[in-house]
Amino acid sequence: MQQDLALVRELQSVDNRIRALEEEISRLPKYIAEIESKLESHKKKLEVDRNSLAENKKTQRLLEGEVSSFEQKISRLREQMNEARTNEQFRAFQHEIQFAEEGIRKIEDRTLDRMEEAETLAQNVAGAEAALKVEVKSVEQEVAEKRARVAQDENDLAAERATRKQLCESLSPDVLTLYERIRKARGGVAVAEATADRCTACNVVFRPQFSQTLRRNDQILTCEQCGLILYYEPPGIGLEDPAHESNLAPG
C-alpha cells in the first residue's frame, strides 16, 4: 500500500501537468488568432486611409476639370465679347465672365482644402505603413514563438501521457479505480496532503484514531469530508525531498 500511495501521488502530479499542458495548448491558438485579428484590423484601417487619400486625389482631379471647363468657357466668352455689337451684349458677356471667374475662385478654395486634407492623409498613411511594417514583423515573430511553444507542449504532453500510462499499469486496480472515480468527480483532483490532524483541502479535523492510521502512510485513506485520497508528509520531509510535490485541492 505504501507503494500505491507513492504512485497515486505521482499520478496526481502527472495529471496536474497534463491538465496544465492541455490548457496551454488550447489557449495558444486562440491567442495567435487574437493577435492576427488585431493585425488584420490595422491593415483594414490602413486600407481605409489609403482609399480616403485616393478619393481625395480623385476629387482634386474633378475640381481641376471643372476649372478647365470654366477657363474654356471664359475663353469663348471673351471671343464672343469682342464681337458684341451693343453695350448691352458686351455687359452680358462681361457678367458671364465674372460669374465664371467667381466659380473658378470657389473651386480653387475647395481644391486648397482638399490639398491640405491630402497632406494630412498622406502623413497618416505613411505613418500607418511604417507602424504596420514593424507590427507585422513583431506578430510574425510572436506567432512563430507561440507555435513553437505549442509544438513543445505537445511533445511534453505525449511524454506525460506515456508516464501516466506506466503509472496506471503499476497501480493496484482497486486503487486506480478509486483514484479515477474521485478525479472525475472532483474536477481532476483526487489527492490532497494532510497535516497531523486535518485535511488541507477541506480543513476538516480528523478523529484521533484516523489521524494515527493516516500518519503511518501504510494504506489508502480518503478524507471523510471531501473524499480525496490523503497522504501525510512527516515534519522535515518535503521541500528537501525532490519527489515531494504539493497536490492541494480546492476547498
Descriptive terms for the model:
single chain, 251 residues, Helix Hairpins, 4 helices, disordered C terminus
How would you characterize the largest beta sheet?
A: 3 strands, mixed
Widest sheet, order of strands: 1-3-2
The third-level CATH topology of the largest domain is Helix Hairpins
CATH first level of the largest domain: Mainly Alpha
Walk me through what this model shows.
The structure is a single chain. The chain is mainly α and 251 residues long. Helix content is 75%, strand content 4%. The chain has helices spanning 2-82, 87-170, 173-185, 208-216, and strands spanning 191-194, 221-222, 229-232. The two termini are 26 Å apart.
